[in-house]
Every structure is written in C-alpha cells, then in structure tokens.
C-alpha cells in the first residue's frame, strides 16, 4: 500500500522547484510509482491495476492537489485553523507564544507544525508508517463527525502517527491549500504523461466527472472516452477583465490578435497579490477577505472548439450542421461584434437541475464553488416546480450561469447588494427575511442543455438557446414570497399559497448587440440609473472559458471616488507575505474629541495596490511606530496617508465611523500629504448619499 510519506516528500521537493517542466516530470514519475508501473508510452497497451492501486492512485492525485475529496463529493472536513491549532498544541506540547512565533515565521500552519513537532517541543516519529488509505479513513471519519471534539481527537490521533514532514502536509491538505506552486491543471498534465494519455482528453474527463482520482484511473485503463458528464458539481466561472472607458472596451474588441490566435485569447485570473473585487463577492459576507482559487479548464474548451472548427471546415457537404464557434480565428475583422448587458451587483451563481439520475434535485453554487442552496429556498421551490411540469427541452438536465439578485418586485429592479448581503451565508431563511428580501435568478448564459456541454459553442449560439430555455421555463419558475410549509428539495411539498401569490423567480438578462463607444456610454448611464454597477461587453464569438479572465468579456465600471485616509492599524500577511505588515486598516477625520483634535474613525481595510517594495518599506516603518500589539494585528501611530479607491460605501456597525468602503484598493502612498488634510466623515457621508444604488432609508 502506498505511503503518505511519498506524497509529503514530493510536495516538499515541488515547493523548492521553480521549473514547470521539472515539476511535471517529478509528479509524473511519482504517479507512475504509485501505480506500480513504468511511465506508459502513447500507443502501448494499458496496464492492469488492482482496485486497491487505483484507489491509492486517486487519493495521491487528489491529495497532491489539496483536495481531501473529489469535487463531485459534497463531503467537507469542517476543520479550520482554530481546531488544527489546538491539535498542534496538544500533540507538540508547545505554548501559545511558540505557535504564534512559528506561524508568523512561515505564514502557514503546516510549516509551523513541522517546526513544533520536532525537538525541543515535539518528538514526532521519524519512520513513516501512514498509508494513503489510513489517511483517507481518518478524513472520512472527520467528514462524518458531528462534534468538534470528535474531529479534534481524530486530527490529534493522525498527527501523533505522522512524521514532522507528513504532519506539515496533512495540515495543508486539511486546510485545502498545499502551497507548493502546483495547480491541478499541472497534475492533470503529469498524470497524462505517466499514463500515456492526451492531456486535453484527461482534462475533459476531469471536467465531466468532477473527479481527478477517477479520471486518473480511467487514463491508466486507456478508457478516458468512458467519462460522462455529471451535474451537481460547479464548473469554473468565466470572468471579465475591467476597462476604464467605452473607448478602451472598443479597442479591446477591435484590435487584431496575433496570427493564428483566437479572439477568445485569455489570461489566468489574477493571483492573491492583485485581486479583483469580484473575487470577494460570493463569500460569507460582503466584507470577507478570502480569495478563492478556481480550476482552470479553459485549455480543454479551446481545444474542443478548434476540433469543431476543423471538422466544420473539412465537412463541405455538411454546411450548417456544425456551427463555427470561432469564425474570426484565421481572418479577424476589426469590427465590434459584442453583446452589451447590465452588470448586476448580486451574487454570481450556477443553478443545476433536471438530471434524470437525481429526480427533483436543484442545487445552487457560488463562484467559490460552495453549495448555497439552503440560503435561497424560494429559488429551489421555483425550479422544483419546473422539474415537476417537465417542459420539452428539460430532459437531460440544465446548467444556467447568472446572478442571484435581491429584487424589488414593485419597482422591477435589483435591490442594492448591501440588502442582499443580509442573506449571504444564511443556512436558515425565515419568512420575514424571505418576504423582506425577495430574490430572483437573472440568467445570462447556458452551459449545459439536453445532455450537451456548451462551453465550446460561441456566445451567440448559447445566447439564442438560453432565450429559448428561459421562454419555456420562466412561466413555470415561480414561488410565493413566503412559504408556510416545510420544503424538502427533491421531494414533494404542498404549499398553502395559491398560484396568485406566486411571483417570477427566473429572468433573462437583457442583452443587445453594441456597435460604438457612444452606445456603450449611453448604456452605462442607463445601467447606473437602474442602480446597477455598470455594463458587461461580451464578444459574440466568445467560448465559455472556465476560470479565465481575458479579452473576450470586459466590464465597465467607473470609480465612484477616491479618499485620502490614514493608516491606524496593520496586520501580518500570509503565505509569501508572512512576516510582512501588508493589511492596512485606515481612517478618516471625524468630529473633534474632548482634546479639540479631530477623532480618527476607521472606514475600511485594504491590502491590494501596493508593490512588494512599498510593503517592505511600510513594514519597517509600522514596526517602528507600533503603539500596541494584539497577536497578528497592531495599532500604529496615525502618520502615513494612503489614497484609496473603492466600489461603493455601505453603512456598517463594524467601524466607529458607521460606514465601510466596499472593495477598497490602495492607489498610492501619499507621503506628500499631512494627516491634517485627509478626508472627513462628512465627505464619506456625501459620497454615500450620492450613490444611486444605496439602500432606501426610512
């Protein structure tokens, strides 16, 4: 049976390796070793692996990717940093101060545990004994444990059997982030190399099955063509790049790409050092500060589109049978061909329904791949009604991409995100909240229909099919404002409300073809007048590239304003920012205090927008001007001024000012400006009241 130590040693080697090709070679070699075979050459007969070896192979690949269970598996470990920290302290016998110092040294609990499980604190075993199967058994038990104390005991038991290096990567695995510079896409490539398979075929199997372990087993069997699409696992969301003006948007769509390069060219989503505000929106609260990393499956979509294109070009007798998903690849014409939509300020989501293998099941997924179904029961009820009536075209299942919006039923427009935010993360929604903040699903893309994955189809075709789907389903997708009977997704229910009490829950995002910068500018003004964030411009030829942010979709949002603020506190960062004060709390001037001086009132916290050099300089300065230390956070002398931009301003009880900047980002350090000239609370209130999308106040 394969040992977990093999994975830990590989992970440690990968963390010190910078070459992508070398990393792939190391992973391929290790995967072949777990399979117990030499690397399979393309065309060779596939090896015969036992069920036990296939299980170990699947665990090895998933654990290396930092995933305890497959994406299709809804189980969760329900362990956080606090629980794991308690376990490390119990096993190592270290003090709180030692744990804090080790964590601050590395910015990573797994690395801190390694230091604490060797003398002078811990005395971890030196001979590896843990098998991948044994680790899997513990993870399974943790997922089913109801009490935190039971999970803690399981973690402690596992750590007591682990070497220090194994413990390091066990904790990283349980936190879901190995931090070794390896994405799942690279593991997929390495598995393909080891199994003698095509990387594109393996990626496609992973996307369909949502199970890296099963795809690896299929690859070694030479049976990747047996992979089948499963609903009820979130696909990666296609992302948009920001533009600052209509003219910039026009330039993005009309400039000629390099020869042989598709107009759907894209770049990976930004890393944590430069997040986009959209990366925060779908977490557990409007001010969450965690970025979720999405798998990148776009290469598979592009490869599939190119294959369809070649087939269409070769099949001269079948004109019209196979659509051309990228008609401008070979001879791009500098003419704008794009759809224009409002950019809504809601919660990006996918809805999955209609799978014959799971009758009646409806699931909503957020952009960070969380199941958010329980937070929006009225949407489940509405789409459950669609399934029961089974209109033509629903057979085979559907995946819709869109936005969950708080909706003003009388005015017929979206409610501000500050209001919808009251429902985000709720596991139980009572009738009062449901009636006060009604929600709808605003659909703007169709990803799967009638058994066909549509990612490689052009937007113009997906949009046409989406319009037909919504026209069929919208009259059926209704639910009452409140519900007086219990509802079980996937089961039958009897509502006391009559049909007259039902309101529509499925809407189609209006879209039109756009031709000029003037039209975009007008549409932007109209969208803001409707209290929406701005506009989206999407290439009509664009493929749906999961997890990608590139040139095919852009979003136009103009900065509301900027504020000059002063740093009042700083917090140590994580990962590569460990040991650096990189998260800054800042304030504006309020009314004069008892001493006659203006009070400083906090309005937000930001960490993006400053360079590594500026962070290093600020860290040294802030350490030298610290007033109080509180673990990872410290208050500092309020002397350094920043200029910050932000999306909008919300009322908030979190700060003494009564306001919070939403998605603040640092534009520059203003050492040229004295603290006495920073902006005031009155200015914050003025900007707040000028927002067309602020909540109405009684």
Automatic annotation (TrEMBL):
Residues 254-273 have a biased composition (Basic and acidic residues). SUPFAM superfamilies: ATP-dependent DNA ligase DNA-binding domain (SSF117018), DNA ligase/mRNA capping enzyme, catalytic domain (SSF56091), Nucleic acid-binding proteins (SSF50249). GO terms for molecular function: ATP binding; DNA binding; DNA ligase (ATP) activity. Residues 254-285, 308-332 are annotated as: Disordered. PROSITE patterns: DNA_LIGASE_A1, DNA_LIGASE_A3. It comes from the Bacteria. It is an enzyme of class 6 (ligase). Keywords: ATP-binding, Cell cycle, Cell division, DNA damage, DNA recombination, DNA repair, DNA replication, Ligase, Nucleotide-binding. CDD domains: OBF_DNA_ligase_Arch_LigB (cd07972). The keyword DNA repair applies. It holds the Pfam family DNA_ligase_A_N. Its EC number is 6.5.1.1. PANTHER family: DNA LIGASE 1, DNA LIGASE 1/3 FAMILY MEMBER. Belongs to the ATP-dependent DNA ligase family. This is DNA ligase (ATP).
